[in-house]
């Protein structure tokens, strides 16, 4: 290969690897197997060895992962969380040892290695100060990670306080994962609830850690093993094995049963073969073996490259696959209306499990994969758990086969399906009226922050839904009419419906409590009403922003109606709303453009009282001020802080810009605080914010509160 050909191929490999890095590390939607990724990465490294000038700073070989999404605060590490080089066979392991000898300039062949199971999970870092967990973050790109402290605190295996004696400061690194049985139970429950299943335990763990609401994370069966450290204020252990023992003594989980110290690479290979036989009976998924030099001093001598330690390597298991027939391509509708193509397969056994269905992820992926009805396809178990279609066997393709054509309407409700710009997923716009989404829609409608109907839980919703009593949110307000023993003989209640108070688990008091809660919920704030609709991308903050701007449901609907009928002025007005991005605007318009959704909203408007927002008094002390809260607060909740500021006339924003007046920063504040300082925006700690409010109440000059 000449230099021009090498550069062209290198550019293509960089493009592919950057893209797959983003899909895997940031979006948690990998499109290729680990084995295929490793093949591409190995080809890149081979090219750079042959043509060193290609190893530029932006090459994937110089990076650890991918830049994280700014959904959470960002933390910058002094010591990066590095990746690992991979070995595909025994020859690579022997070359690994040879490189170590060359680096140390020794022929010594009795290096002691420590072998650890490579847990198929999500790498995180836990920061302990004076024995207390003060911060937790994802790996991100190795240097910049997302702060997920509240989510990590929900994992029972992780101690909030270390056992004494502990170092004054310690960064612990480890893997968050889900046991196989727990994963199967989780997917089984999601299937019952009409939710899309997770592809594998790693994706489930990653998705759980990315929940903005930590109470949702708490519902997931997450676990944790520690395997290393970052910064630490203690006497350094003499070996990696001693390090693991110390971590265990502090109360941190360590996979001691899956760890073995060996005398040489040959013994490491023997242990790898033993694991290959045992992997199917383990309680959790592993995808290989990590082999490290055990001696800490030798580790220091060897050092690291920009992306991986020289003293460690991962020896991955080979992928498992079988060939079968793709009998059809179906679609399933997820909780948020996501439309996912699904491969219907001729049943085939892969690693002892019979496979008959496999997700095809999204229509863009399906188009690239180009598998067709009647094709012979290769099926693998991703993470050795969930099946995925890897490729078609082209030489066996039928002469009359045709590429798959995605549907234009939801197969459940007939509403149009739509793809937003920049989003790989397609969505059903049926919203409130799509039965595939209805149970989750109803659960969201009655939740706290929406209509907050106490006593109408998920199990009750499922029962009432199965009986045809509630299909849409407006049906909830007729439950008393349908389920009260005094219901009219002339109403339209289905025959044979048992009054609520006569049902198992209910009584007169609990039934009346539910009916009273429903009646009480009929008076609802505008922001709660908007949030209750479950429009994709419109959370509590976005709903508050829309409510504050448009003041009444009538005004909001008028703006949306005008926008749908091609009014550029109103469309621009929506787009200019700070905190409401183009994707959210598109989702709003799609939702209200559906006649069934619009009819349902009109029904609700006639049933409930939606409180209008009155114009604020002109003399409120924070009138016209734009405030951003970031980090965690200790003396008050985030909602309390934001509501307090809004009551004084402030506008709450979720992003920092030149138009921001004050940033209130608590522990864990990251990129928003840095941006505020860069823009020279006034920043206050939580205590300074409280003092600032007190000064306003007493009429003192607010500038008396010093800036951080």
Automatic annotation (TrEMBL):
Name of the protein in question: DNA ligase
Species of provenance: Desulfuromonas soudanensis
Keywords recorded for this protein, A-Z: DNA damage, DNA repair, DNA replication, Ligase, Magnesium, Manganese, Metal-binding, NAD, Zinc
Positions annotated to bind Zn(2+): 410, 413, 434
Cofactor(s) named in the record: Mg(2+); Mn(2+)
A Pfam family this chain is assigned to: OB_DNA_ligase
A GO cellular component entry from the record: cytosol
Family: Belongs to the NAD-dependent DNA ligase family. LigA subfamily.
InterPro entries, A to Z: BRCT_dom, BRCT_dom_sf, DisA/LigA_HHH, DNA_ligase, DNA_ligase_CS, DNAligase_adenylation, DNAligase_N, NA-bd_OB-fold
Residues of the BRCT domain: 617-690
